[in-house]
Amino acid sequence: RNYTSPPKGDHGRRSLPPSPPGFPLLGHLPLLGSLPHRALRSLAATHGPVMLLRLGRVPTVVVSSAAAAQEAMKTRDLAFASRPRVRMAERLLYGRDMAFAPYGEHWRQARRVCVVHLLSARCIRSFRRVREQEAAALVGRVRRAAAARGGAAVNLSSLLVSHSSAVILRAAFGDMYSGYRIDGGGHLRKVFGDFQELMGSGTLGELVPWLAWVDSLRGLHAKAARTFEALDGLLERVIADHRKRRREGDGGDDEGHRGFVNVLLDVNEAAEEEEKGGARFDTVAIKAIILDMFTAGSDTPATVLEWAMAELLNHPAEMRKLQEEIRAAIRSDDDHITEDHLDKLHFLKPVLKETLRLHMPAPLVPRESVEDTELLGYRVPARTRVIVNVSAIGRDPATWERAEEFLPERFAEDADMDQNALGQPDFTFLPFGAGRRGCPGAAFGIASVELVLASLLCHFDWELPGGGASTVDMGEIHGLAVRLKKPLLLAVKPCSSP
Ligand code: HEM
């Protein structure tokens, strides 16, 4: 079937993309199931790389090939540069954040602040100590957990989630973050956990208004109200504390790195002085961007690490090869691993790239068309919701040999992981999306996982606990990120002489 030359309708007008049969009222929603990226991939195999679905009342174009993604994210990048409205995000992020913002002046300004002030190569370098300290702390926690459990399995997934949260919280709030507690005594991680869970659970009501009661029944609105209040109170206090410290002459530098809150307060003060064109960068903008960083930057590194460990456990030869490389790289230094060692680890980056190809934390990239446009010759009206199925593209057998297999060697030749090499120029590998809406935190994310994976493999030997399954169950669960359905419970042996 030739998908690249769709028929033209009356008067030579482009036709809409093909659409499978749907259900009355619900449209194609029931076809998505619990793992939409997989269901959409199967549908695309029958209906083509650009198809039109109706999710409840919302028309949605699904993009599932490298060629179609290239057109949407490069050739017509501007036309597809918006994001659909997500009520839960609007509710929790003050309607003023960047990642979920429609294309326009607000997004442009907020994105510039993130790219220049929070996620630049210089900022990422400045957080090196945080990353190294937190990686060492994780190693310590694993060691203690292994000792305390006396050989019983350790829950690595939960340790990874705490680790990633700690890194992003320190990056955001500075080293004093652990001092912040929510009123009533609960820890701030609990509130952030609820926040992430809510952000990962779409509300049915926005797709199918007459089913909005289901959201209430699930308690989503009440939980969102509680979480918003707790988070807002916390962020207000954090910002007020930072302002107070600044007035007292404490610039808030923690061993050479400046937390995001302090950096955003600099931007806020500069904007107030300039008052250019009425552009606002006020306290609400600071809170919204901090939450963006937390939404986008906390679960993602933990998820990548979890999948990498799962794949390596199922591929012991690759695990051994990487461990030998890491242990050889630091043997001469007779010390623990630091970021200085990473350049010597030529197999680490292929392992991470192959992990990302098979297990993108965000397999469905949400976009919205800004204007009437086209995709592979099909008509896409303005304000159509668009989903780029980057997971289907990463597993497309037309591009990838033995597409379903974990074969890190396929990236051995082009293991470069710096900012420009995170995606493939031919759009066959898009874990970070692409174009003007592409992930601005990719380098931050990669820096957050490399040292941790190397440390876990350097200092420990990992196995599935005896008496259970012989391979990791790779079942997925869909939330804010697509993660392993069952947590990684592993037998771990400290390795005393790397
Ligand atoms: C390994 C980890 C990560 C992966 C796989 C990932 C993936 C993605 C993807 C697929 C998108 C959508 C891109 C598009 O529309 O084309 C995105 C957007 C975004 N990411 Fe990441 N990300 C990661 C880590 C991070 C980190 C650590 C941060 C910040 C600390 C971050 C901040 C953002 C933001 C702010 C956006 C929205 C950009 C916009 O709408 O203009 N990400 N990410």
TrEMBL record:
Heme binds at residue 439. Keywords: Heme, Iron, Metal-binding, Monooxygenase, Oxidoreductase, Signal. It holds the Pfam family p450. Its cofactor is heme. GO terms for molecular function: metal ion binding; monooxygenase activity. Belongs to the cytochrome P450 family. This is Uncharacterized protein. It comes from Urochloa decumbens.
